[in-house]
Amino acid sequence: MAIDLGTANTLVYVNGKGVVLNEPSVVAVANVNGKVSVLAVGAEAKRMLGRTPDYIRAIRPLRDGVIADFNIAQEMIKYFIKHVHNRSIFMSPRIVICVPYGATAVERKAIEEAAEVAGGREVFLIEEPMAAAIGAGLPIAEPRGSIVVDIGGGTTEVAVVSLGGIVLASSLRVGGDRMDDEIVSYVRQNFNLLIGEATAENIKKEIGSAVCTHDSNNIKMQIRGRSLVDGNPLNVEISQKQVSEALMSSVSEIARGVKDAIEQVPPELVADIIDAGIVLTGGGALLSNLTDVISNITGVQAKVADNPLNCVVLGTGASLTAFKKFGSVLKKAS
Ligand SMILES: Nc1ncnc2c1ncn2[C@@H]1O[C@H](COP(=O)(O)OP(=O)(O)OP(=O)(O)O)[C@@H](O)[C@H]1O
Ligand SMILES: [Mg+2]
Q1: pTM above 0.85, yes or no
Q2: Which residue has a Cα nearest atom 12 of ligand 1?
Q3: What is the homologous superfamily of the domain 144-174+252-308 according to CATH?
Q4: pLDDT value at position 99?
Q5: CATH code, residues 176-247
Q6: Which of 63, 286, 304, 316 to mutate to test ligand 1, by most ligand atoms within 8 A of the CB atom?
Q7: Which segment of 34-43, 172-181, 233-242, 268-277 scores lowest on mean pLDDT?
């Protein structure tokens, strides 16, 4: 069993079955007279985000690429593993979970423990950028540099891999969540309209673009929120041009982060990278025209991997099934 524990989405892959679970990393908890209990996990909990009464909270335990809430994160991991594992309750699986590059020893241990408590017989960890590179089909075991940029909800991780190891990596605290926040602020400032995160995410997915193109003025979408002027519900129209303005700072931060990383790469590997190009994974890679911006700023051709949302979990799964080939990239927390 392979788990991609993302800040936005958690995916589980089972050998021979493929991706068997793909749920938002959200937990809804109720606090009644100081007693905390889990009400819902995954898609059901995500629907509650921003819509809960006082005593219920919908939490994203991994916000911003780090574990913001240990207990809830552990509950979520346990829930997902049990959910998938229900049918074969008597067999303890071997589990590999990917962790963000730069996760602390304490965080690694907490993730490992949660998997053990949920019934993992043997638990391994793999670094997320390595999993992304394997899942994107890069030749990680060869003496050849490859660069992968995983743009997730909380973070963007840039990594150069060669000979089965990470030569260099950096983690930027910018990703899809920041883009959503920027859309919320833009809409507030320019339309006097209050919208929630979920609406902002929809706008980004529907008409978002990393740059303004000649068509951007004509691509439009109706959005609904609450007027800041009189508090009433209000519909407005937003154009792709406006969304690209809203996204400008996060997009350029990502592109500059990739450029900075490339500047640190040892010279022999730079040549490899220029030949092979930059591969983008993660949901953020689906933002229209992002490859153009990254190619322009870095001077290296960028392309989106096949199935960018699944690369990390597929790479994590491959590391387990091809244990001999990829065994060296798997680690124990302690
Ligand atoms: N078509 C799209 N255009 C732009 N962004 C998208 C699109 N589809 C998904 N996303 C964004 O991708 C992000 C989720 O990506 P992903 O599932 O790779 O993140 P994650 O693995 O959970 O996060 P992390 O890797 O930071 O822990 C969300 O912010 C989501 O809004
Ligand atoms: Mg991810």
Answers
A1: yes
A2: 283
A3: ATPase, nucleotide binding domain (3.30.420.40)
A4: 87
A5: 3.90.640.10
A6: 286
A7: 34-43
